[in-house]
Amino acid sequence: RWASGAFQLAAGCVMIQESTKKVVVVRDTDTGRWFLPRGRKDVGETLEQAAFREGYEESGFNPEPLPLLLPHRQPQSPEQKKARKADPNNMAHYLTTTEPVYITTIPAPPTGRRDGYEYTCFWYAASLPPDAVREENTGMEDEKSYVGKLLPYEEAIRVLHDPESFVVWFTYNKWLETCQALRD
After folding, report:
1. What fold characterizes domain 7-183?
2. Across residues 71-86, what is the average pLDDT?
3. What is the pTM assigned to this prediction?
4. Which residues form the Nudix hydrolase domain (predicted)?
């Protein structure tokens, strides 16, 4: 359990360009570090809004929600129930764009200035169109060295570290399963 000052909510996204099967990974050109776009949720912002805002700011690519067939424990919305009843054989009624694909939590240790806390990141699946173009200077001042790159899946997994490599693996495989299910 964590009281309000003992956790920080964050959101990020795994962006897949479906036409090329590539994944967006961000590289900090100052440090050489590779990572997925993510960041803190602003006050009043939903986690989903934060994920797509951070995706755009840190990578320069403008993501859209990617519907996936996901196991989850959230009840269907009234709109989903109505659509499912009207067309029970349409698999699209089982898709979700608003639920996180994965959640990671890492401890932020105490420093001389602050107590430790839990950094909890909600990950969303995102899509890029075939003609996506990276925009320059979309990040905050301290993110100017961030460059979003479209990498083949295997290369994205290779340059990322756990838990982000696993988040990409999980999301990418759920996307492949969704594509297969919709074809069937």
Report:
1. Nucleoside Triphosphate Pyrophosphohydrolase (3.90.79)
2. 82
3. 0.90
4. 6-173
